[in-house]
Structure formats: C-alpha cells, structure tokens
Design a protein that fits this description.
- The complex is a heterodimer of chains A (259) and B (300).
- Chain A is an alpha/beta fold and 259 residues long.
- Chain A has a single domain, classed as von Willebrand factor, type A domain (Rossmann fold, 3-Layer(aba) Sandwich).
- In chain A, 33% of the residues lie in helices and 18% in strands.
- Chain A has eight helices and nine strands.
- Chain A has helices spanning 47-67, 111-121, 148-156, 159-163, 178-188, 201-220, 238-241, 243-246, and strands at residues 3-5, 28-37, 72-81, 85-87, 93-94, 135-140, 165-171, 196-198, 225-226.
- In chain A, strands 2, 3, 4, 5, 6, 7 and 8 form a seven-stranded mixed sheet that branches.
- Chain B has a single domain (7-289), classed as 4-Layer Sandwich (Phosphatase 2c, domain 1), CATH 3.60.40.
- Helices cover 34% and strands 23% of the residues of chain B.
- Chain B is built from eight helices and 13 strands.
- Chain B has helices spanning 17-22, 58-80, 86-95, 97-115, 141-146, 227-230, 236-252, 255-272; strands spanning 7-14, 28-33, 42-49, 149-156, 160-166, 170-174, 179-181, 194-195, 208-213, 221-225, 278-285, 291-292, 297-298.
- In chain B, the strands form three sheets. Chain B has a five-stranded antiparallel sheet.
- Chain B is globular and about 60 Å long.
- The chains are: A alpha/beta (259), B alpha+beta (300).
- Strand 1 of chain A pairs antiparallel with strand 7 (179-181) of chain B.
Chain lengths: 259, 300
Amino acid sequence: MSVFDFAGGENAASEPAPRRPGGRMASRPLHFIWLADGSGSMRVEGKIQALNHAIREAIPHMRAAAQENPHAAVFVNAIRFADEARWMDKKLTPVSEFRWNDIEASGATALGEALTMVGETLQPPLMTDRALAPVIALVTDGLPTDDFQAGLDHLLSKPWGRQALRIVVAIGEDSASNEAQEIFRAFMANDALRPFHANNPEALAEQIRWVSTAVLKSVSSPAGQVHDQATGTTAAGWTASLPLLTGVDAAGPDEADVW
Amino acid sequence: MVMSLRWTALSASVQGASHQKRGQGNQDAVRLKNPSGSDDILLLAVADGHGSTRSFRSDRGAALAAECALRELRHFIRRLGPDAPLSRVRNQAKTRWPKTLIAAWKSAVRADLTARPFTQLEFAAFPEAPPVVKPDAELPISAYLAYGATLLAVAVTPRYILYSQLGDGDILTVHADGVASRPLPRRHEFMANQTVSLCSHYATDEFQIRVDALRGRVPALITLSTDGYANCFGDDESFFKVGVDLLSYLRSEGVDFVGEKLEEWLRQSSHDGSGDDITVGLAARANALSFSARSGTGSG
C-alpha cells in the first residue's frame, strides 16, 4: 500500500478559498525517437541529404502538432546508426528545443545496437506510469549488418519497448526486398501496419512529415486499449487509434523514382 | 466496536477537454446510492469506457457497468446477510462477486444489443461482419469490446467496506489525520492507456478485491476516480493530495459546497492536465467531517 501523509500540509483546512484539489499538474510525456540510417549505402543518389532535409523540415510541423495538444509534452531524440549507433543529443529534448544535426553516411548498419540503446533508455525513471506510448520511427534503406534480432529482442523485453508504436519509413528499392520487409515486420510487430515507402526525395519528405504530425497527434490523444491478447488488441491496439496507418502500402513505381 | 454508519456519497463526471475538441462524448459513467433508513448500504460505482475505435459503444458499456455494479453489489451483500463472518464475505467477494458482475454486465450488453443491433456502418472499418444476438449462442469478443469499460466499485455496510477494481482507475482512502493511501495496490502493467476490462477474456481473474472491517482505523473519505484524474498530475503525491484537499473542503465548506464545485474542479483539471474524461465518486463519513482547525484533526 502506498501512503502519503499530508497532515499539516500547504493545503490545510484553514485555507479560506478552496482551489482545485490536488497538487502539481503536468502534461503526459511522449517520447519520440528517430532511428536514422547513416550507413554507406545512404550516400548513393543523395539519400542521406534527402533524409536530413526531410527531418529538418518536419521539425516545425512536429512542434505545431505538439502545440495543438497541451495535454502531452513531446520529447525528441535521434540515433544515427552506421558502424555503431550513437544518440544525437545527450537526452530526449523538448520538441520546442530539438534541433536536427545533419548526419553523414558511411560504414555498416548497426540497427541491432540502436534498438538495444532504445530499450535501455525507455525504462524508469524516464518512463513513468503516466507516460504516453513512445514512438520509434525507423528510417532506413536496407538491411542491418549486426545482430538485429538480439537488439529487437532486447527492446521488446522491456515493457515500454513493447508498448511503443514502431513505424518504418523505407527508402529505395533495396528496402522493398523480401528480406528487408521481413525485418520491418518483425520490428513493427503489428500485422495491421505497413512500412511507408519512399523512392524519391519528395515522397520521403512527405512520409517523414506525416509521421511527425499525424502519428504524433494520434499517439498523444490515445483512447483506452484493452490489454488482452485474446481480443487481438495488444500493443497493436494502436490500429484502433491510427486507422490511417493500416491501409498505407508501398507505392508502385513512379517516373519520379530515383532510388 | 462498530462505527456509527453515517456516510454521504457525491459524484461528478466531465467530458475530457481533448475529447471535446474531437467531438467525442464522455465515455465515463458513475452511479451511487446513499444509505437510507430502510437500506443502510452505501454503494458507489465508476466506469470508464475505452473510447477507442473498436469500443464505439463504450459510453453505453460504462453506464451498464455502473448500473450492474450497484444492483448486483446490493444483492450480493443482502444475500450474505448482515451477520456473515468477514472471512466469508472476503472469500465470497473474491470468488463469487467477479463472476456475478461479469455475467450481469454481459447480460446487459446482450439485452442492449437485442434492442439496438449493430449496424453495418458501425462495423464498416473492421474486417468482420457485425455480430448478431442469437439464442443460446455466446456473443463474440468483438461485441463486448464495442462496449468495453473498466470498473471501480465500493460498498460501505454497517460492518465492512468492500473495494472492487477491474482495470485502471484509482480508489483512494483518506483518514481523518490526513493520510491518503490506495487500499488496492496500483498495477504498474497498466501503461500507455492499456488496461484489462469487463470485456477481457479472463476478466474474472483480473479483479482486485479488498474487504475491511468497519472498526478501528476507518477512512474519513473514499474516492473513486477514472484514470483521467490521476493522469493530470505529475506524480502520485500530487494526485493523493486531491483526496486530502477534498476532505479538507468537506470539513471547512461542507458537503453541499463540494457537491456544487466538484464538476468545475474536474473540468479545470481535465483542461490543465490529462485532457481526458474525468469522473469521481466519493463517500464521506459524516462523523469525520467535523473539524478542529486548531488541532488539525477531525473526530473519529
């Protein structure tokens, strides 16, 4: 039994004008983490420049979306993964202060390490009972080169890792391969979700902006979800509040495709 | 010694500030019954409808839950009789009460569905056809999910207090000396708006039940609230202060004043805090409300 003793506290009965009962109010924290592929293959055809541009341009939209819901406090950070995974900022930063530092492309694709780092971060004391489900947005053009499964297992072994809405923005033709799709499905672990697919800079910018705004808005105003495997609404219950995610599929080839 | 049973119940329920923006109605429900000369049991039930796309009738489900809880809890206590040993009350509360309540709620959902069958439009977004009520056939889980709700219920009898909780939400007790606590432990697995509820497969196993004798250290105030209230506050301590402040106002300003102000306070809290629907039911022990400002303690 948890107990707090307020006898003789600041709101003693002798106060003349009753104010709203209760102590300090606070918005519910919502943590948004970009996983950005900085591997060598992202150097080809200007993919890394397009990624940097798309996320940088999306940040103001993200701020605007966050401002529309004062009941959620949005915090953002990013991990660049290449030969190794590294946080962009030292900690999750309020979206109003978050700045995207352009990343460079070189080396391998240590996605498994990045997932392990996210799993380590999404734990108490950062994550409290009242936090909203975190969002983990993976932007990548291909296959991991390290032990992806070990990283995913680690992330999903953490309650908040399982609760997170995990979405994928896949770049270019290579990311449409069966092997890549299998990786993405394992990461999202939600049959109702599909990866977003971008074959050119404009499409990438559009997908990133959508993830930064519509997804953010939806996650910041969640409805109650039944925690029951048998009902089919487990953590995947996000399908209930994110209907737009369920019908999105990879676009067919387009003349504008460059990747 | 058995305490003199003079309890008063109050309630208020407000639509969430963010729900108002989205045009979504209040999905909570509350029902109460004050003790009277002929019936000396106080009953209080608060239900929180899921409000998700899949739970599109959860306002109805919550109302049915609160109504079933009041009716069935009263029958349950009457059937046990006024002199049942507390050990028997506890045992029956843990084994029989969850089954009784779930059966009653499912029956109420079934009756509601019979009167108002699902429409094609209500199921337009889902792959399956709308479930139909058939004689002697159990409804599929999707039918109950449409009505899904959590439930908090409390009964105060002349001899004991029965606390019952299924899913998220909070029951607090506040004692005359200003100590607030949860009679039922918080379940930390309910995170990110995930919860068990009346429509969960093994709902009867998910109930939290407690029965306390009405002697010795008896609460001055019991509050039941949907999770939208606790989610307004930065930490448990700030939320527990709600109970302490309410007791303080009941003592200094009176029951009628708190009854009048409660809705306004909840509206303000939803606006400044979680944005969610907020519903509160409270039961105050009358002989603990007389307050001595000098000593800082109430009687009882």
